[in-house]
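Predict the 3D structure for this chain.
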Amino acid sequence: MKIVLFILCSVFIFQPIIADAQGLGVGYAQNNKNKSNKLKVTSSQKAAKLAKSRVGGKVLKVQKTQINGNPAYRVRVLKKDGNIVPVVVDAKTGRVKGK
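Done. Predicted structure below.
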């Protein structure tokens, strides 16, 4: 009887640890939250392509950065008229901000 009681207690004590290790326990909501925050722009090449399609011209430089705690890319684009336009691409949403 003591052995059965010991086994049952062990299952209830270690169940959260085992479930969490499988991604089903306490951290389950946290794991799903991270999955929902997938980035739409995952590389400098994608950021450059978005910036170029928005502004036109030639991409000079792409720099990965964080703006207000969110991942982003700073892109410098040389327009045909000779102006260099700074553009920010939000990695989460794919939004392009700049002229």
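The longest strand covers residues 58-67.
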